[in-house]
Amino acid sequence: MKPTIVIGGGIVGLFTAYFLQKEGEEVIVIDKGDMEENCSTGNAGMVVPSHIVPLASPGMISKGISWMLSSKSPFYIQPRLDKKLIEWCLLFYRNSNSKHVQKSIPFLKGISLFSKQLYMEFIAEHDNGNINFQDRGLLMLYKSREGENEEIEFSHLAKKSGIEVEVLGKEDIRKLEPHQEVDVRGGIFFPDDAHLSPKDLYQYLKQYLVKNGVVLKSGVRITGFEKGADKVKAVITSEGKIDCKQVMVCAGSWSGEIAKMLGFKLPMMGGKGYSFVLPNNPQLMQSSILTEARVSQSPYGEKVRFGGTMEISNKADHVNLNRVKGIFESIKAYYPEFKAEFPQEDQIWKGMRPCSPDGLPYIGKAPKWKNVAFGAGHSMMGLSLAPATGKILADLGKGKEGEVKLEGFAVDRYAR
After folding, report:
1. What CA–CA distance (Å, rounded) separates 58 from 64?
2. Residue of 289, 267, 262, 255 whose CA lies nearest to 359
3. Which helix (H) or strand (E) holds 332?
4. Per residue in 162-213, pLDDT tens?
5. How far is the C-alpha of 61 from the C-alpha of 306, rounded, in Å?
6. 153 and 242 housed in the same domain
7. pTM, whole model, 2 decimals?
8. 300 membership: H or E segment, kind and range
């Protein structure tokens, strides 16, 4: 039996391998990195059915211009003469409108709820307390009147879309954070959201897959494909050719390069984010997003991870300390009593999140090829949507009808 090749060993690729293996497929996962540190290990670890609005939205354009002027801002595009970047920015601008948001909501809601359901089933089946899954909800905190208006408006949109939501005052927030002063006007609480330890989940999945016969190949580059009339016959790698039954591309921000090898366009840019872990003192209890700063914090007992920024850049290995300072300074602004020391540079995680120009992932069959599918472009939602994406791809590979509408995630939407 020829194997299914999963290109990309991040969390989406591993969940794709997980569901394929459950279907009895022989699976090989190929990744050009070391499969130790990547976007899947240093993110906020949030599972967020509440996130039903795509990154490309009217607010991003209005705020983006002012943010571009600050080296510490939550969103930044590194200016450069780059045809691919210019094309991506134009598409992002065209998609940042209310019509696109309204059209996207049902698709994002459907896949997000399905993914949360799959996480609950995964936890029940594996009974793995090691991944620190905490089904405690998510708190959106705001300090300004403008922030309050935006979040209240979003709470109405979420309610209208069938998402459970609560508007909280300062006293309500104090009950959720009994050990910590929280300097805010109020917050929005999404009780159905959750968070987990991304690194522990990633390591557990790797161990489980190897134990169950999945082959993981790290440090291996894809150099091309051996193609038939409408099927890919083999994947050509830096270590040689591998004959295959089918190919699942889950290569994150590099998926556009793979699409190019297959003869179609898949607009994608890497959006760099940063995070760091600090001692949790005084102890934060509730995972939260500091909305004006666009900073997330996820507590894990004695430790807490802070993360943020979206830097559209081609400098994957460079740490922009000013952007990290922007994250760090927001801690005291929202939690004035929190004891925080600026992290050493080697303690700062960085990762390139794969961003499509409309804020929606690419999930589904590839144009031209009957045995190739893509699951990429999840932006900041990779961990949240990974189980659903993996299950959808595994179902597609077996010719099954999936549970989620995929039209909004069409892989060929910019290839036509």
Report:
1. 10
2. 267
3. helix 321-334
4. 999 999 999 999 999 999 999 999 999 999 999 999 999 999 999 999 999 9
5. 25
6. no
7. 0.95
8. strand 295-300
